[in-house]
Design brief:
This protein is 32% helix and 20% strand. It is of the alpha/beta class. Helix 3 packs across helix 7.
Length: 471
């Protein structure tokens, strides 16, 4: 096995925007043999999803054993961690045994990233992507697997390989154009999210209609912009299905997009680097965990497992696919609620998640200590006629809020006054809401965050202990 050097990869690791599907669609199957490897793995995934739950349980156990042995052998961070906390790698056999391993937080990853990269990973280090802070490696094999999981999810919506599709991407390298790119080999039309403005939209709509695309993929916030203009301009733009990813999809945004494009949304949950994956089922609307991808846990803020009684838990993931940077019990910062473990669609994939309320730092806290998911506020603003792209609500302390609003003909002081009254009814009448008028709501990595909490309370209450919250 050849020696892996993080320093030798530094130049490639600094290429921003090479993230997951966005990197994959730009050519992750370029090496000799990659296409054959992709076809074999996609065929495996097509079959494995129909295998019984017992098969998935045994598959996860075998992958977990391989991952733990690998991490203990060649990953300095885990070798040291197992020794420090007294975990014998051989004792981690069942997914439940992972509870003996400490959770890996975002700050832990940032602080120890050089030690989490294996000492040797062979030639799988050919591909890399940008991460939380700085960069991290994604193996070529993991990138191929990402594409296979994505295609399987698309196929479960009725997609047939080669069908014309539209992708709304944050960026795409390797082209002189900064707004549009066409991949003839896959019949995919790529549009830059940064170019979704009044100047380009009319031309984009014409190009989208003439493309004959039957599927469209993108962030919910980007698709909401298209949906708003489609409804306002009464544009006839229909698709067989919409696939969303990268942001929490609220009921209000879902309804608007489905109305505009006269179809159904099939949400795909994943992160910008391999941790955990799940896809919304066409039959039950719940999220099937991709058990071939990794192990998902829902835990409360005390670290205890969350049951199935409509309680909100933090999504913690252990990934099987990316040996270039193994992640064991990584805290994604996202929240989920368990659903039933079986689904009438017939797939053996666990139907584990019935709802994704948002991120931990997107749960705002009322004066009486209740946690309020972002979807509640997004519905409130939507009912007032304000789309998510036009505002951002930030909680800076228990009583202090900032409301950023884009000034326009429809959004003035009267709208804000009405919104403040409704907001105070839910966050507490003594709260202070400062209003800031801005030209636009800034995004992070192309993602819009309409609700943000920037402080951590001294005493966690409500959703942090697995209690019910309104969702």
């Amino acid at each position: 096995m050849s020696k892996f050097s993080f320093k030798n990869m530094a130049g490639r690791l600094d290429n921003a925007g090479f993230q997951k599907i966005r990197g994959i669609v730009s050519g992750a199957l370029a090496r000799k043999g990659d296409k054959a490897k992709f076809r074999r793995y996609l065929d495996f995934l097509r079959k494995s999803q129909w295998r019984p739950a017992e098969w998935h349980r045994e598959y996860q156990k075998s992958q977990l054993r391989s991952l733990i042995d690998y991490s203990a052998e060649v990953v300095p961070y885990y070798r040291r961690l197992f020794k420090t906390v007294g975990v014998d790698p051989a004792s981690v056999v069942e997914p439940e045994d992972l509870r003996a391993v400490p959770i890996l937080s975002r700050s832990d990853l940032e602080r120890n990233i050089l030690e989490i990269i294996p000492e040797s990973i062979g030639d799988e280090s050919e591909r890399a992507g940008s991460a939380i802070k700085g960069s991290f490696p994604i193996s070529n094999t993991a990138m191929i697997m990402e594409e296979a999981f994505f295609i399987r999810h698309l196929e479960n919506t009725g997609y047939k390989p080669g069908s014309p599709c539209i992708f709304l991407l944050n960026d795409f390298p390797g082209t002189g154009e900064d707004t549009y790119r066409y991949d003839r080999s896959r019949n995919r039309h790529y549009y830059s999210i940064a170019s979704l403005n009044q100047k380009n939209l009319e031309a984009f709509f014409k190009k989208m209609k003439s493309s004959g695309a039957v599927y469209i993929y993108g962030y919910p916030s980007a698709l909401e912009i298209l949906a708003d203009h489609t409804l306002t301009w009464e544009i006839d733009l229909k698709f067989q299905a919409v696939v969303t990813s990268g942001e929490i999809l609220t009921n209000a945004v879902r309804g608007k997009i489905e109305q505009a494009f006269e179809t159904k949304i099939y949400d795909l949950y994943n992160l910008s680097f391999p941790v955990i994956g799940m896809g919304q089922c066409h039959y039950c609307d719940g999220y099937h965990l991709f058990s071939e991808y990794g192990i998902l846990e829902l835990i409360d803020f005390d670290g205890n497992p969350v049951g199935v009684n409509d309680r909100v838990g933090r999504i913690v993931g252990t990934n099987f696919t990316n040996r270039a940077m193994p992640l064991i019990r990584y805290d994604t910062g996202d929240l989920g609620i368990y659903g039933n473990e079986t689904c009438d669609c017939g797939r053996g994939l666990p139907r584990l998640i019935k709802k994704l309320p948002g991120r931990k730092d997107n749960l705002l806290i009322s004066q009486d200590g209740r946690y309020i998911p972002p979807g509640f506020f997004q519905t409130l603003f939507s009912e007032t006629g304000v789309p998510s792209a036009m505002y951002q609500l930030i909680q800076r302390s228990r009583e202090n809020f900032k409301l950023r609003m884009v000034r326009g003909p429809e959004y003035d002081e009267n709208i804000v006054a009405a919104l403040k009254i409704r907001l105070l009814e839910h966050i507490g009448e003594k709260s202070l809401i400062d209003v800031e008028w801005v030209e636009k709501i800034e995004s992070t990595d192309g993602k819009a965050r309409s609700v943000i909490r920037t402080f951590e309370p001294d005493k966690l209450r409500g959703a942090n202990r697995g209690e019910r919250v309104a969702v």
